[in-house]
């Protein structure tokens, strides 16, 4: 059995740092609106607005549920992707109910490309492209933690031509 050198899922916070933060803030805002309801409206405006307080609570609950589902969708998407690197091969698994497997033999790896935006560099995440033959990558994985280590692990394998 080959030794596992790297085993990770893409990270939600590292993949979508601003989206995750904004979604959590909007969820908290929804809770605040649902709990406080009519108390957020200044007293001088309450007479002008035809609201029984229940409407604001429903809006708050709706905002909370919507953004909770958005965050849950992103989280499940990160859990459905998995990268495992052994001394012999790279195995990429994608999917939750139906699975797609991509196996790349270390001997066929020609180039490993790491792409990082400024925010990915801050969060120590990045996108990995693995080329075997031709000009298009065989495998592209987004948002993996510690992409430099992945590149070094693949390059360090004796069978790798990178």
From TrEMBL:
Stretches assigned to the YdbS-like PH domain: 83-154
Keyword Membrane: yes
TM annotation in the entry: 20-37, 58-77
Superkingdom, taxonomy of origin: Bacteria
rRNA-binding in keyword set: no
Keywords of this entry: Membrane, Transmembrane, Transmembrane helix
InterPro entries: YdbS-like_PH
Protein name listed in UniProt: PH domain-containing protein
Source organism of this protein record: Thermochromatium tepidum ATCC 43061
């Amino acid at each position: 059995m080959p030794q596992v050198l790297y085993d990770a899922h893409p990270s939600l916070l590292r993949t979508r740092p601003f989206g995750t933060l904004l979604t959590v803030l909007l969820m908290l805002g929804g809770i605040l609106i649902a709990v406080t309801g009519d108390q957020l409206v200044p007293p001088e405006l309450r007479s002008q607005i035809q609201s029984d307080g229940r409407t604001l609570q429903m809006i708050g609950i709706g905002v909370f549920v919507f953004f909770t589902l958005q965050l849950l969708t992103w989280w499940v998407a990160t859990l459905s992707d998995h990268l495992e690197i052994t001394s012999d091969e790279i195995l990429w698994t994608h999917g939750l109910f139906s699975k797609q497997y991509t196996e790349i033999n270390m001997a066929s790896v020609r180039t490993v490309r790491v792409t990082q935006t400024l925010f990915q560099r801050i969060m120590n995440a990045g996108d990995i492209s693995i080329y075997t033959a031709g000009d298009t990558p065989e495998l592209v994985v987004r948002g993996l933690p510690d992409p430099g280590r992945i590149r070094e692990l693949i390059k360090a394998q004796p069978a790798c031509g990178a």
